Amino acid sequence: MKTLEALQKVINYQFKDINVLKEALTHRSYSFEKKEELSDNQRLEFFGDAVLELIASEYLFDRYDQSMEGELTKMRSAMTRGEALFELAHSFQLDDYLFLGKGERSLKGKNRETRVIDAFESLLAALYIDGGLRPAKDLYLSLAKKCWSSPYELMLKQNPKGSLQELTQKKTGKRPEYRLKNVTGEEHDPEFEVEVLLSGDVIGLGFAGSRRKAEEEAARQGIAQIMGGENDS
User: Fold this and answer.
1) Same domain, 141 and 214
2) 3-state SS of the chain: helix, strand, coil percent to 5?
3) Residue ranges of the chain with per-residue pLDDT less than 50
4) Rounded to an integer, what distance in angstroms lies between the CA atom of residue 8 and that of residue 130?
5) 82 is in which domain, residue-wise?
6) 121 annotated active-site
7) How far apart are the first and last CA of the chain?
8) Catalytic annotation present for 49
9) Confidence (pLDDT) at 146
10) Which of 121, 195, 215, 217 is catalytic?
11) Exactly one of 33, 49, 71, 138 is catalytic; which is it?
């Protein structure tokens, strides 16, 4: 486990009250195993969710001054979704700084993702409590700019099939069609090849271990082709 001092250097903020930071990083499994009166990060997680909404809302309101409420809401949802927060937290290995019980430390997959997401929201709350909105906003936006090119492209990445359909209907009035082109590999380890077409023309091709993921990859290519064509025009 890495130190609180090391984390403060990574996030470029020195806490006036180090106990607030420690609380943000303390999982309930740690306080349970220690059998001590230790505050875990559940309350801070609750507060951090509101801080996150404020940061994303203010940023989008200022940056996308021509966008309507519906589009702003979709982008805010993309910026505050668990998978997006996990990507930000993972970019500086937040999990390595958490106070965890021994059993929790060994958990992987969704359990690990959940605790990291909760800790990231708790960290934003701790920054807000200790220093106001500015340090929380600075951390979130600095990480976001490293991980994503824009909230709009993040939104497209998270829901590629839905985003491609919305894009094609807006531009052409037509829906994309997905076609399974080939399945290769062994029965226990297949690879699906799917193409997506618009008005009969192939605009994307995806390869993956499941048909759904192959369709999503094809959709991402389709989005890139359509948006690339807009940039060329």
Assistant:
1) no
2) 65, 15, 20
3) 233
4) 13
5) 4-158
6) yes
7) 52
8) yes
9) 93
10) 121
11) 49
